[in-house]
């Protein structure tokens, strides 16, 4: 084999290798982000900066858990009230969030950005739903939306809520006087978490 043929074969081999490398890189880039895996221990999340910056950092560190919980919570709410009603409910919640706590919107939009940075897509109203899930599912008010929200309800968009075998709620009790051993008052509160909720998170924030 002459020198020119040898160089041609070597150059061809390099081209094939580069093509395979590019193909593999493309497959790696197209791979879906990893799923959420519970460890059984609270995840420690550390954030700092503005509300938006802290939201971005929070989203980047907790994206798999957020997406996992959105899927579960959304399914439960849609089954209970219907997609259209739940969407409008979240719009009402957001109206009051923007009115009374606008900085929190910066935090939620930062979380959306942080999730996107990790390859996950989360909608803004889904993050609202994560905030108000217990109220939406178990204690949704039957009254019409307040007129100031300019959101109209639809009568035909909601299925009847499914029957529930048990009621989820926090509870509290108090005792005093002769009902306690030393006469001092005792007050206790049990704060229950939704059965759909996954692991807790320990958040250390430095605004």
What topology emerges from the helices and strands here?
Elements: H1 3-30, E1 43-48, H2 51-81, H3 83-100, H4 102-117, H5 124-138, E2 171-175, E3 186-190, E4 201-206
Parallel strand pairs: 1-4
Antiparallel strand pairs: 2-3
Helix pairs in contact: 2-3, 2-4, 2-5, 3-4, 3-5
Give me some keywords for this one.
207 residues, mainly alpha, Penicillin Amidohydrolase, domain 1, two-stranded parallel sheet, two-stranded antiparallel ribbon, 5 helices
Description:
The chain has a domain at 47-166: Orthogonal Bundle (Penicillin Amidohydrolase, domain 1), CATH 1.10.439. It has helices at 3-30, 51-81, 83-100, 102-117, 124-138; strands spanning 43-48, 171-175, 186-190, 201-206. By secondary structure, it is mainly alpha-helical. The protein is built from five helices and four strands. The strands form two sheets. Strands 1-4 form a two-stranded parallel ribbon. The protein has a two-stranded antiparallel sheet with strand order 2-3.
